Amino acid sequence: MNLADRGINYRVDVDYWYRDDAEAIRQDLIAIRDQLSCTTVNLYGRDVPKLTAAARIALQLGLRVWLQPRLVDASPAQTLDHLAEAAAAAEQLRREAPEVVLNTGCEYSLYTTGIGPGRTARDNWFPLESSRWWALLPLVNRRLNVFLGQVAATARANFHGRITYASGFWEKVDWTGFDIVGVNYYRHEHNQDGFRAGLRRLHRDGKPVAILEFGCGSYVGAAEDGPRAHRIVDWSGDRPKVHPGFVRDESVQARYLAELLDIYLGEGVSSAFVFEFADRSRLHSRRPARDLDMAGYAITKVTGGGGETWAPKAAFHELGRIYGDLASTSDVPPAGHRVNR
Questions:
Q1: Which of 37, 113, 28 is closest to 302 using CA atoms?
Q2: Angle CA(297)–CA(306)–CA(316) in degrees, nearest 5?
Q3: Residue 306: is its pLDDT beyond 80?
Q4: What is the pLDDT of residues 54-85, one digit of tens each?
Q5: How do beta strands 181-184 and 163-168 pair?
Q6: CA atoms 94, 331, 10, 311: torsion sign
Q7: Which residues pair with 40 in a beta bridge?
Q8: CA distance 215 to 314
Q9: pLDDT tens digits for 205-256?
């Protein structure tokens, strides 16, 4: 087996950071293409013009693009309006590059108000392991699927290519309105025994399966935590700090990605997107208490406050090796064309 999309997530903008330098984005995407042997990038963020500009750069470099608009703590109406804007922009891109995919959103039960029980994403995320949260899950999923029907209709009205949605592993999605089953599928200590079985269930709709996020932190024990790396940080003060006792170990992250990619390949996954290339909000420090990169999922580490420079972590090199090996045996041609650097 091989992957139709050897992918990675790339954050174009979020509330606390904007990447305005087109040349810096271009250099990042060149590294994604040439050093990681990626075929595809999932571009996500809030600012639609910035997303569109980054997508054009990626397409010029011969990368395939999945475009994901992402609002945090927005109402359903605001989210649909934002999606309509992004879908129209994605349609313009698709007319130039037919393989553009619209990834309509991410984990709405956390990030969109009125679906999960909390008022904010943080309200929803931090109690995720509580029995009360899980007791409400049937209601949350009913609300979610009603909203996803509106999401699919909004996307189809403005975009005529393939669409998907980046669901949380706890969300029970009706995939009728989507072309690709998309899941942020992380392994952790509570699902590792049934991890393969859960993956196989994703194929029941007979549609291509895309793993739209997977990864872990860079510390001893991160593989067991999976998507819960945030737990090692005390977020209560003005400056977040890592709880005592956690030891940086980049090999944990590298091994985790390798193991999951091996499983995904064996279970017929069509597309896989590592989470993520860089996180300028969680800087690396030599001081363990300030090394927030340990609690992030990026395969590069950023040290400067401006986030202009990054350095590869062990997972970066491991992913480049794996994707490079897959590229050498792939019969999937690269999309678009490459321009001179």
A1: 28
A2: 30
A3: no
A4: 999 999 999 999 999 999 999 999 999 999 99
A5: parallel
A6: negative
A7: 7, 64
A8: 13
A9: 999 999 999 999 999 999 999 999 999 999 988 899 999 999 999 999 999 9
Separation between Cα atoms, residue 130 and residue 50, nearest integer Å: 37
Residue 156, H or E segment: helix 137-158
Q: Which helix (H) or strand (E) holds 273?
A: strand 271-274
Domain architecture of the chain: domains with CATH: 5-329 (3.20.20.80)
What is the band of 119 on the pLDDT scale with cuts at 50, 70, 90?
A: confident
Distance CA 250, CA 131 (A): 33
Q: Is 306 exposed, middle or buried (0-12, 13-18, 19+ CB in 10 A)?
A: exposed
How far is Cα 41 from Cα 64, in angstroms, rounded to an integer? 6
114: left (phi over 0), alpha (psi -120 to 50) or beta: left
Beta bridge partners of 13: 18
Q: What are the start-end ranges of the H helices in the chain?
A: 22-34, 48-60, 76-96, 108-111, 121-125, 131-135, 137-158, 195-201, 222-225, 250-266, 314-329
Q: Which two tokens stand for residue 264?
A: 């995904």
* SS3 assignment, position 22: helix
> Which residue is listed with tokens 């605001």?
78
Note whether 51 and 69 are within 8 A (CB): yes
pLDDT in tens, 1-12: 799 999 999 999
Query: Could you identify the residue written with the tokens 């037919």?
Result: 98
